[in-house]
Amino acid sequence: MKAQKVGILCAGDTEAAPFFSALSEYRVTEKAMLKFYEGTLAGMETVVLFSGVCKVNAAIASQLLIDLFGVDAIINAGTAGGLDPALEIFDTVISTEACYHDVAADILTEFHPLDGHRIFPGGSGTVGILPARRRQMASAGKVVWGRMATGESFITDEGRQKILTEFAPLTVDMETASIAHVCYVNKVPFLAVRCVTDTAAHSGVEHFEENCEKASLIAKDITFAILREMRAR
């Protein structure tokens, strides 16, 4: 993918903070109670913001990035809960695709012209990362590619296995699939970069809060590596 202008969309302010601090010169535009920061990151023209948590907030921000700012691609950067047992705290997942774990399949396939899709693309077909570069991206933990699942709740032990059985995602969060959904219907390339803050072995809001700042910095570093790769193509 050859993009001229990239949207960097985070859910929360902690996740967006490393990107804001890297912007030396920028212009701020306010729309729909959101602030969009236009500047340059890793040599790429970018628009950075945090949308607020959950699907609708992320979808509003995504559509505005496309309609108001004309971005060529959107990267969703931030944190996630690790569902795959092989993932550890501060491992990072780069999306190959995304799905909702809390939306009935027929809602997506019968009441909207999605051509039967309930899983949205967003990954290796959009942005190619060389294996050698991939090994250099993580400042902590490992970097893997895979499916992400989205739903508006923290996952308990009771709900974890059901999501794994039905969707087999590596991670779970509250925004990714909605951003991928907006990008899919607008034919805009999408990628998510999510660093793990909590797992089955270390679950709960307290682990998210403890690990969010460091995980956000890791996600930012990997996103910068991706931007540099995109610029070189």
Radius of gyration: 16 Å
Which strand order does the major sheet show? 5-9-8-6-10
Structural class: alpha/beta
Low-confidence stretches: none
Query: How confident overall, as mean pLDDT?
Result: 87
Strand content: 25-35%
Order of helices and strands: EHEEEHEEHEHEHEHEH
How many strand units? 10
What is the count of DSSP helices, taking H or I runs of 4+ residues?
A: 7
Helical amount among residues, as a percent range?
25-40%
Distance between termini? 7 Å
The largest pleated sheet is described as: 5 strands, mixed, barrel
Outline, from the CA principal axes?
A: globular
Could you characterize what this model shows?
There is one protein chain. By secondary structure, the protein is α/β, with parallel strands linked by helices. The protein has helices at residues 13-22, 55-67, 105-110, 131-137, 157-167, 176-186, 205-232; strands at residues 5-10, 26-31, 34-41, 44-50, 73-82, 92-100, 119-121, 143-150, 171-173, 190-198. Strands 5-9-8-6-10 form a five-stranded mixed barrel, surrounded by four helices. The N and C termini lie close together (7 Å). The model has no long low-confidence stretch (mean pLDDT 87).
Give keywords:
233 residues, 5-stranded mixed beta barrel
Short note summarizing the structure:
This protein has helices at 13-22, 55-67, 105-110, 131-137, 157-167, 176-186, 205-232, and strands at residues 5-10, 26-31, 34-41, 44-50, 73-82, 92-100, 119-121, 143-150, 171-173, 190-198.
